[in-house]
Amino acid sequence: MVDGVRNRLVTLTVIGLALLAAGALVVMALNVIVGSSSISLADVMKVIAGSMDSDDTKAIIVMQIRIPRALAAAIGGAALAVAGLLLQTYFNNPIVEPYVLGISSGASLFVGLFFLGGFTFGFAQISPMMLFVGAFVGAMAVMAIVLVAARKVKSVITLLIVGLMVGYLCSAATSILTAFADKERLQIFSMWTMGSFAGITWSQIAVLAAVICPMIGFAFLLAKPLNALAMGDKYAASMGINVKHVRYLLILIASVLTAAVTAFAGPVSFIGLAVPHICRVVFRTYNNRVLIPATAMGGALMAGICDFAARNVIAPTELPLAAVTSVIGAPIVVYLLTRKEVR
């Protein structure tokens, strides 16, 4: 009987993961087909198959604009969701995410130094890798401050406030940079801070995939230590796990994932907070072997939906992605805050 129940749970989990994957693929397809200029699925398939002239307007829209954007939303959403899950596990609190802890703000500040401060180190153009390195340095700097604070304060609420304050300081420094920037750079940076997967190029997709996919794979390999860590440091240590080593890996992976997305899409909030909690509720488990792939696919799905809404709700005008994710994610945050176990 026990084996029967276990097999049923495994089957339901596999079905749930398959539905998430299918949903993410469907939304990606819709993001390619639907837009201010609708393109039929048949035409999209012709473009992908190479049977349509590459100079054709439809081919340019599909290959140079929509497919890179759809891929960026899927990869970026997966990264933010997994980063949120890792940080929530680290701090043992379901309302933690990179944006709340100020990691995104730190990444934004250092990207702002490249955009507005002109620190290109002699390069004529800012490459995708330079943006990633700048965002990574900023993310790690803020995370280091939060980790130092975590050692000195026991209250999770106090720690979250520290993260918020660091985020405000980074935002203030970014605002000061804008006062000295030229108009052209300022306009580009202002659009970037609103969050958007628009304008993503294939070279940026290559960087995103090369950084994010291995990091998510590494996170999955840490599923067993993560499960033990969720039971407490003493329990994890009794299982032969190097707690300190695992915690550093969690911070490194979460910071890399956050930095990669922030570098190219700007600060995107709530996906890293909402998706892990939704997956816990839907799959009724805290097993990270299930939650890591579930949050990755759930993040891809949610980011795709938000990007679709941003492009099409009041087309041809495009809404800021951060505004759409906030509308969807804020009610979930309120729900979390009113739960007894979060108080």
Please explain how this structure is put together.
Helix 5 crosses helix 11. The two termini are 38 Å apart. The protein has 343 residues and is an all-alpha fold. It is globular, with a radius of gyration of 21 Å. It has 14 helices and no strands.
Please render the helix and strand layout as text.
Elements: H1 2-33, H2 41-49, H3 57-91, H4 103-115, H5 128-152, H6 156-180, H7 183-193, H8 202-221, H9 223-229, H10 233-238, H11 243-265, H12 271-283, H13 288-312, H14 321-337
Helix pairs in contact: 1-3, 1-13, 2-3, 3-8, 3-11, 3-12, 3-13, 4-5, 4-6, 4-11, 5-6, 5-11, 8-11, 12-13, 13-14
Report a brief summary of the structure.
By secondary structure, this protein is an all-alpha fold. The protein is 76% helix and 0% strand.
Q: Taking Cα atoms only, what radius of gyration do you get, to the nearest Å? A: 21 Å
Helix content: over 70%
Q: In one word, what is the shape?
A: globular
What is the subunit arrangement here?
Answer: single chain
Structural class: mainly alpha
Q: Care to count the β-strands?
A: 0
- Bin the strand percentage: under 5%
Mean pLDDT: 81
Q: Please trace the helix and strand order, writing H or E for each element.
A: HHHHHHHHHHHHHH
Quick one: biggest sheet? none
Compute the number of helices. 14
Quote the distance from N terminus to C terminus.
38 Å
**Low-pLDDT windows of residues:** none
